Amino acid sequence: MESETDPYSLRALLQWQIDCGADEAILDAPVDRYALEAKPPPPVPAMPGAAEAVPESPVSAAGPDPVAEARLMADAAQDLPALAAAIAAFPHCELQKGARSMVFADGQAEARLMIVGEAPGREEDRIGRPFVGQAGQLLDRMLAAIGMARDAARPEDAVYITNVLPWRPPGNRTPEPAEIAMMLPFLERHVALAKPDILVLMGNTPCQAILGRTGITRIRGQWTEALGIPVLPMFHPAYLLRQPLAKREAWADLLALKSRLMTGAST
Q1: What element of type H or E holds 255?
Q2: Are 133 and 109 in contact (CB under 8 A)?
Q3: CB within 10 Å: which end of the chain, N or C, has fewer?
Q4: Does residue 119 carry a pLDDT above 50?
Q5: What per-residue confidence (pLDDT) applies to 55?
Q6: Nearest to 263 by CA among 209, 203, 223
C-alpha cells in the first residue's frame, strides 16, 4: 500500500482539487465576500485646458420637428406661388425623393369650391397636375353633371383642386400618419389662401387630415365645418371606379353640393 506522504499521491490530490475548481489556498479565517465594498474606479484626470463635456439635450439629439418647421414655412407664405415654393423647399418628406414631380394644384384659385384629394397617382406624378388619370376623368364628368369645371371662367362655376400630399407615395400606397401630419400645415395654409366657400374632402385621407375622422362610407354626405368653412365628405372617384354601385350616393352628394352653392355656403 502506498504511503499518504508519497509525493505522487499528494500531486494527484492537488490536481484533483484544481480540477474541482479550488484555485487558491484556504485562509486561516473565512472571508465574507458579500460584505466587501466595491472600490470605485479611479477618476480619470482631466486634460489641462479641456472644456467640461455637456450632454446634448433630448431635443437637439432628436433633430428638428418636421411639423413645427412645416408650420413656420407655411405661415410665412403670403400667396399661392410662395406656398408652392415653400412646399418644394420642405426637406423632411421622403416622398419627394422618389417622386417625379410636385403636384400642387389645378383649376381656378378664385373658385368658390375647393376639392381635396389624397395624393398623386402615376399619371398625376408624370404630368404634374392633380386628378388627371382615370379617377380625374370621372371627377370631371361628375362636376360637368352639375355645371362645374376646373377651367370654368366664372368663379361660381369653377373648381380648385389639390391633394393632402403633393408627392406620389410609392406604389400608390395609402399615406402614412406622419406624412399627413407634416404636410397638414401646408394644406391648411393652402385653404386659407384660396379662400373657398365650400371644401369637399374626397376619400378617407383628407377626412383624416382635416376632420380627424375616417370611415368615408359612414360620414360621406354629412355636412360639417372645418377651417372656418362648410365641409362635405364624398367618395373618391377611384373608389367609385371600383364600386360602381356607390355612384348613386355620389350623385346625391353632388346634388346637395350644387344646392348649397346655389343657395349660399352659409345656409
Answers
A1: helix 247-263
A2: no
A3: N
A4: yes
A5: 41
A6: 223
pLDDT > 70 in the chain, percent: 80
Residue 211 DSSP symbol = H
Average of pLDDT values for 27-36? 60
Beta-bridge partner residues of 232:
200
**Mean pLDDT of the chain, nearest integer:** 86
Give the 3-state secondary structure of residue 74.
Answer: helix
Classify strands 198-202 and 159-163 as parallel, antiparallel or unpaired: unpaired
At residue 44, does pLDDT exceed 60? no
Q: Which residue, among 168, 205, 174, has the nearest Cα to 187 in the 3D structure? A: 205
Instruction: Tell me the β-bridge partners of 114.
Output: 160, 199
Query: 47's torsion region: left (phi>0), alpha (psi -120 to 50) or beta?
Result: beta
Q: Could you tell me which of 251, 255, 223, 226 has the C-alpha nearest to residue 237?
A: 251
Q: Which residue do the cell numbers 350644387 mark?
A: 258
Q: Single out the residue of 230, 207, 206, 229 nearest to residue 218, CA to CA.
A: 207
The average pLDDT across 239-254 equals 96
